[in-house]
Amino acid sequence: xxxxxxxxxxxxxxxxxxxxxxxxxxxxxxxxxGLSVQDLHEPKDIADFKVASDHYHHMKEDVKLMAEMGMKxxxxxxxxxxxxxxxxxxxxxxxxxxxxxxxxxxVSYGIEPVVTMYHFDLPLKLHEKGxxxxxxxxxxxxxxxxxLFETYGDRVKYWLTINEQNVMINHPNAMNPGxxxxxxxxxxxxxxxxxxxxxxxxxxxxxxSNGKIGPAPNITAIYPEKCNPADVIAADNWESIRCWLYxxxxxxxxxxxxxxxxMEEKGYTPVIEDGDMEIxxxxxxxxxxxxxxxxxTVSEARNDGTDCQPRxxxxxxxxxxxxxxxxxxxxxxxxxxxxxxxxxxxxRVTLRRIYDRYHLPMLITENGLGAxxxxxxxxxxxxxxxxDYLKRHFHQAQLAISDGVELIGYCxxxxxxxxxxxxxxxxxxxxxxxxxxxxxxxxxxxxxxxxFYWYQEVIKNNGLSE
Length: 466
Ligand code: BGP
Fold this sequence. Notes:
- One of its GO terms (biological process) is carbohydrate catabolic process.
- One of its GO terms (molecular function) is beta-glucosidase activity.
- Keywords: Glycosidase, Hydrolase.
- Helix content is about 40%, strand content about 15%.
- The chain is α/β, with parallel strands linked by helices.
- The chain has a domain at about 15-335: Alpha-Beta Barrel (TIM Barrel).
- Helix 13 links the parallel strand 12 and strand 13.
- Helix 8 crosses helix 11 (about 275-280).
């Protein structure tokens, strides 16, 4: 086997964990919060996002647990609708106060706040006025961004603009209650998000001293099924359309030619207004947030009406696109209980590809294992599968660092159990168990899983001990 000298995780490495507002907070219309598109979204037969893990009412207890685990960073999102209930109208002081208290609490324990400005929860009022298809949403986002930088910029140095813009474009169901937009509309939404994120990036640099800001897309290496060159082209194309498009615009300030030609051929090109590309080119991210779960494997499209074969609606499962690519099986990889591939080496591949293309520091903003965890009679949650999963991925992260990749931190999904986008509490990711299930809210007690204690050791040692 090829010998590789392992480098240590750098000093000050941001070992952390992630959540997002609508999946963890609950209190969906308390203290002046407006509704977001997620508050209308009630996944079939499963818990909705209205109570979630009730973090809104357990905030101090939760942050104490973060400190006990030793977390150096906490990546969370701010609910736009707590700050501006209508998306662009009056400011809600109680919402401002909640995040002030959360940030103060984190800082008091020496935990670095890493804030996602927008994680799937567009204010419903903006959605009703056209959502991201409308340029007004760009202005609303800029107004919201100014408030965030002004209010929290003294304590928050790490900012993420938009979570998984590429997932919102490729899997629009959950973000668009009512009619699903056409692809043409989706690529217009996408362009408008690029402009909004670019404006926020420029503002952050103007308003937050030492502020660092970047995008947080869901990136994954795409493998060709065979060494058949036609499969390689299909994999290249899909990687450019699904992944690089989003980082090329954010970092290089331009659409890549493969994605642009794809949009032209399909009739999806967005309207680009005068000045948009200048703003996009001027905005320079400081780092890249990477959500990585699994690689995908594809083969050449047949273009015979069978390329798209929907399996389930999950964001991580590729389904194919007519004339573009076919989803293929990768016999080298195992799957989770939910059909997501487990590919730790693929994470190293992905990180290397990103670094080669952009040469920016990276922060892993999501990665983790969704499983059907059980609270056992001994009052514990034994999750050796999660420990095994993370161990393998941490090892590959260390190998990537040893390859020269600049990795500044690792925030697994998720700090605590929260509502999964499709499977409610039947699919858990946390280091901390929340004692509730789909229908029964029980007592919402927080219970440390075995992985909690394991991760605590990893953080203490600044890496894996074996
Ligand atoms: C990412 C999202 C997260 C989170 C995670 C796990 O795509 O950014 O919000 O939900 O996936 O996904 P799921 O809950 O579907 O298992």
